[in-house]
Amino acid sequence: PLAGGISVTSILCKGVPQKDKSTLCDYDLFGSEEVYTEALENILERGQIRSEKINRGTNVECEIYSLHPSIQKPSLNINLRSIEPISYSIVDLSHPRQCELGMNSICDEAVLDHIPYSRVFYHCFPGAVIIHRGRRYKIHSMSSPPAFANPTAGYRCNSCNLGAFAKPTNVQYSTNALSITLITVVKQLQRVELTSSSLNENINDKHLPAHFEPELNSGCLAGNGVVTVKRTVHGYKKLSLVNRIELSRSEITLPPMEYDTNALWIDTEASVLAELLPDYDKGVHALSHSIVAVAPLFVPCNSSDIDCDHSHYGCTRVLLFDVRAGGAGTCALLWRHFFHPDGVLKAAIDLLSECPLECDQVGHYKGGCPGCIQAVPCINFQQDLSRSAGLLIARRMLGRIEKTALYQQNCEVIKQNSNANSPDKMKAGASYDGDNTSPSVSTPRNNLRQKKLDRAADLVSARKRNIVVGRESWPTDHASSRFNTAVEDIENEANEIEPFSPKGGFI
Questions:
Q1: For the chain, the helix, strand and coil percentages under 3-state DSSP, each to the nearest 5
Q2: How much is the pLDDT for 263?
Q3: Cα–Cα distance between 475 and 485 in angstroms, integer?
Q4: What is the CA radius of gyration of the chain?
Q5: What is the DSSP letter of 84?
Q6: Cβ neighbours around 503 below 10 Å, total
Q7: Judging by beta carbons within 10 Å of its beta carbon (0-12, 13-18, 19+), is residue 361 exposed, middle or buried?
Q8: How far, in Å, CA of 307 to CA of 257, rounded?
Q9: Among candidates 268, 186, 253, which has minimal Cα distance to 221?
Q10: Residues 237 and 245: beta-carbon distance below 8 Å
Q11: Looking at residue 129, what is its pLDDT?
Q12: What are phi and psi of 468, to 5 degrees?
């Protein structure tokens, strides 16, 4: 049962004090009392639990919450591997049971593996070559997903009802997907500005070259809010198994995945640095990778919870977003760690300046390695990265952040707490919420404003709305439930495309 601030041990054992410090209560297990209360209110509204009062002794009662009796075996409705609304089953068409069914239905014995919707078009697109238990398979067709999907369907264990049909093959090449990610800012909740009055002195970094000291730009430096992420796989390329040289490219038509989520972004001074740095776009890409790589040092997350904009041309900002549709709160927590000493950007600079595996000591190589900036999954397959350019951009970005009013206010708060011998607690009545205003006093008006901001950033409406996973113009949405585009048609189209030269350009 859920007992709030009372440990379950003290409820079961009458001799144990109600506030026993040796045992953890639900507040500790959920992270804080606020998180526990929010989750409890959510499941109470759904009618999934019920409250009851129990007697712990003479005139001592406590309220606990338990599962509603109408819900039977809730563990069967939870998928521990994926929480996405749609998932695919990779089906072996050569299996005897599946040969009888064809592509009309899926036999459980012929299923090789399951893959969530967000990854299926990157790994199991029509024409893709996959390896399962040392055997090579080629994807021939896929089931067409519905135009919309309920986000809560992904919590069910048996939500996998679509198939990617494959056959064994002996082809001597591998495949990589070609994709485009379009990120659009739709709502800005917070921002940090750099005023011209705070730029009296230029950045003074001994690691920067003497000729590389352009004036810092003022204006909007950073912000966080809501973005719309749209991912589309538009083709794939074939690579040789011997030397990984690109053999050819093919175009395919697949539906995009579009959803709203939380994000944060920081300006990279494209108007100044793009002309001075030859590898400016590669540097922004490398800096984005480094920030994602060090994010787990500050917030509880991993590479599957947060991602960045992997654009490698026309870059103007570093943008990080929650991978989970509707937002998981990771970027909102990470936002606070950019504007205080020894924050996220300082850790990213340390990673860019010195690789743990010393890949920066190998000649003039600038692309990094899996021990540093390549530790982050990349839809561009770790291409177009430059550690040296990313380091220069990061140091200038840190110099601009250190001149903001928010950064200086946080330094003052830390200094006051250090003098008061309370480094882990802030000054009473002050809020460290990452806003560019002064620490706000707890008043009814400020509390109401903060509550509305939290509600807007929570993206509850985005979770309730259906996630757009397809479009009506996609082939076979009206004709049938499968792709009409067979692998043979794709290969015929590939033969008409001019082969790609390993030296660059088309032959």
A1: 30, 25, 40
A2: 92
A3: 8
A4: 27
A5: -
A6: 6
A7: exposed
A8: 15
A9: 268
A10: no
A11: 94
A12: -75, 115
Distance CA 506, CA 291 (A): 36
Provide the token pair at 385: 């990265």
- The CA-based diameter of the chain, rounded to the nearest angstrom, is 89
pLDDT at 200: 57
Cβ–Cβ < 8 Å for 86, 154: yes
In 6-19, which positions are buried (b, 16+ CB within 10 angstroms) versus exposed (e)? bbeebbeeeeeeee
Report the predicted TM-score, pTM, of the whole model to 2 decimal places: 0.67
Contact assessment for residue 217 and residue 272, using Cβ atoms and an 8 Å cutoff: yes
Between CA 350 and CA 359 the distance in angstroms is 14
For residue 244, count CB atoms less than 10 angstroms from its CB and return exposed for 0-12, middle for 13-18, buried for 19 or more. Answer: exposed
In this structure, the strands spanning 87-92 and 160-168 are parallel
Q: Specify the pLDDT at position 9.
A: 67
365-to-386, 387, 389, 449 alpha-carbon distances in Å: 9, 9, 12, 50
Low-confidence ranges of the chain (pLDDT < 50): 152-155, 202-211, 422-439, 464-466, 469-507
Query: 281 in helix, strand or coil?
Result: helix
Segment 227-276, tens digit of pLDDT: 988 888 899 999 999 988 999 999 998 888 788 888 999 998 888 888 88
**Per-residue pLDDT at 239:** 92
The pLDDT, as a whole number, for residue 46 is: 79
